[in-house]
Amino acid sequence: MTAHKVRTRFAPSPTGFIHLGNIRSALYPWAFARANGGDFILRIEDTDVERSTQASVDVILEGMAWLQLTPDEGPFYQMQRMDRYKEVLAQLQAAGHVYPCYMSVEELDALRERQMANKEKPRYDGTWRPAPGKVLPPVPEGVKPVLRFKTPQDGVVAWDDKCKGRIEFQNSELDDLVIARPDGTPTYNFCVCVDDIDMGITHVIRGDDHVNNTPRQIHIFEALGAQVPVFAHLPTVLNEQGEKMSKRNGAKAVTQYRDEGYLPDAMVNYLARLGWSHGDDEIFSRAQFLEWFNLDHLGRSAGQFDEAKLRWVNAQHLKALDDTQLATLVTPFVERAGVPAAQLDARLPRICGLFKDRCETLVDLANWVRLFYVESIERNAEDFAKHVTPAVEPVLAAFAAAIEQVEWSKEAIAAAIKDVLKAQGVKMPQLAMPVRVLTLGTAHTPSVDAVLELLGREKICARLKTR
């Protein structure tokens, strides 16, 4: 921890739809800022103009809004900060940290081929790096140079990573980084440093695919006389096949989980456990997560996504929700299932309370809820054949007659069922199972008296007659 106020950031590139592996890299810096009374900044790194899309930006913003990972500042867009980058570039050049390099792409390719043939690490050889007494090649006519950063040639660059421990690189292994292209536009590693300095970032919490960028960035921070932030490089998130999670490997956009009926707090709970732990706690609230979160319990090994586990976590959160709150959350999903919100009524919270233990997502719950509001239903053919048989027709007829006369309460319906069973000389399953199939389409429902009371006399009578 530094003496300064904690300031973290999430800096995605909008070059593809953000997936769960990406969004976990937003969750931890958000949580660390919240846990320490700090600020969380959102920065969109959109300098790859050819691949960046507004649709990808929208998914980032929608996904973070859904998960309630609200930034305190931003979004900032790198493409809107080009003048600032060029200003700092000029400062570095004036201080002698940067030099023009006129080596062509063809020359670089030839150099790399020679190095690989000699079993050497392919790297820029410093041809245009100025040094006392060194004579540089003549400047070719009509060629715009790249600008390279003068990487220190001796010693080591090192940091104590909050996730991976001590990491060191020999400076002699690092070549001189291109920090501006021939057209003057600055490159990624340089822009990141300027942004982190200007935004006062104290902790950089990001994926471990950035480890090799970090020594470069530390050199740039130091050349600019800036405080080097604390780094924590998070292990990769793997998909269910054990490969790095990516859109190419079938990863879904974060917003798809929203549309599939997952709860934001359940998703936060699940993602938190994909690289961090608090003892053996599996299910916890957002408030508990923020109370417990620190960088000392980050895992060092890759987390593997498991959709069955995610569904289980979501089911636990769904089950724990207040019925009224759940009714509000499920309403848009019920609408999508074909029931206008205007048709929903005071029964909705009670229906949610009755069925939530059987559901893993809001979509599951909506599919149950709609059965109480539509006129006709589909019935499970296997259940129908098994339970709605000629043998039970007299029992169903007696039940239909009883249900038309009964006082409308769960207790009175339960008493009527008992009376029918006694009069017909049958056991509960011989009545309850066919009634379930005929009224809700499946033999597997909660308590039949509770279901019937909520369904209402009119719908029950109509569905019992419909074969």
Task: Give descriptors for this structure.
alpha/beta, 3 domains, 19 helices, elongated, 3-stranded parallel β-sheet, 45% helix
Description:
It is built from 19 helices and twelve strands. The chain is α/β, with parallel strands linked by helices and 467 residues long. It has three domains: 248 residues, HUPs (Rossmann fold), CATH 3.40.50; 50 residues; 85 residues, Arc Repressor Mutant, subunit A, CATH 1.10.10.350. The strands form five sheets. Strands 1-2-3 form a three-stranded parallel β-sheet, with helices on one face. It has a three-stranded antiparallel β-sheet with strand order 4-5-8. The protein has a two-stranded antiparallel ribbon with strand order 6-7. Helix 6 links the parallel strand 9 and strand 10. Helix 5 packs across helix 6, helix 8 packs across helix 10 and helix 15 runs antiparallel to helix 19. It is elongated, with a radius of gyration of 32 Å.
Layout: helices, strands, pairs:
Elements lengths: L6 E4 L9 H16 L3 E6 L9 H13 L6 E5 L4 H13 L3 E4 L3 H13 L28 E4 L6 E6 L3 E6 L7 E3 L7 H11 L4 E5 L6 H10 L6 E5 L2 E2 L15 H6 L4 H9 L13 H7 L10 E2 L2 H14 L2 H14 L11 H8 L6 H9 L10 H7 L5 H13 L4 H15 L3 H13 L7 H8 L1 H9 L2
Parallel strand pairs: 1-2, 2-3, 9-10, 11-12
Antiparallel strand pairs: 4-5, 5-8, 6-7
Helix pairs in contact: 1-9, 5-6, 8-10, 11-12, 11-13, 15-16, 15-19, 16-18
Class per helix and strand makeup: alpha/beta
Uncertain regions: pLDDT < 50 for 5+ in a row?
Answer: none
Largest β sheet strand count, sense and barrel closure: 3 strands, parallel
CATH fold-level assignment of the largest domain: Rossmann fold
**Can you count the beta strands?**
12
What is the arithmetic mean of pLDDT? 95
Total number of distinct structural domains? 3
